[in-house]
Amino acid sequence: MKKGIFFIGFIFLFISIGMSQEIGIFRTTKDFTMRNHEIYYEDAVGMHILGNYFFANKFDDVGLKWWQSDLATFSLGVLWEVKDGYIPVEQVPVIGGNGFSYSDLYVNAGIIITNRIFKFGINTIKKSFSKQHNRVRY
Predict the structure, then answer these.
(1) Cut 0.90: pTM above it
(2) What is the pLDDT of residue 113?
(3) Boundaries of every domain in the chain
């Protein structure tokens, strides 16, 4: 399963680079949202939150350990940013990006960490309530 995930990621990366009309030109950006000509995605933060939350939970559901699912989710985020660096949105509007962004990676890491904290916190609360409920005898 792990090899399959990374294989799909690398295949996607090479296809994306092949579709680029500016092969070998790597762009970076400091802008978190995409503002290029008539294309403006102001909900980029929401897309990052939902995407990372979805992948982290799906990797948990398929049986990966918590650290493996977090690492796989972060790796997909890094691959996506590399794709954004190589494929300009002006030339490939469907899957193009505005450039490699460290701020996107920071948001990805923050969301993965927050998701994990919430999961551990909720599980701890559930366990403490179940222990308290089992102690009370009617």
Answers:
(1) no
(2) 92
(3) 2-135
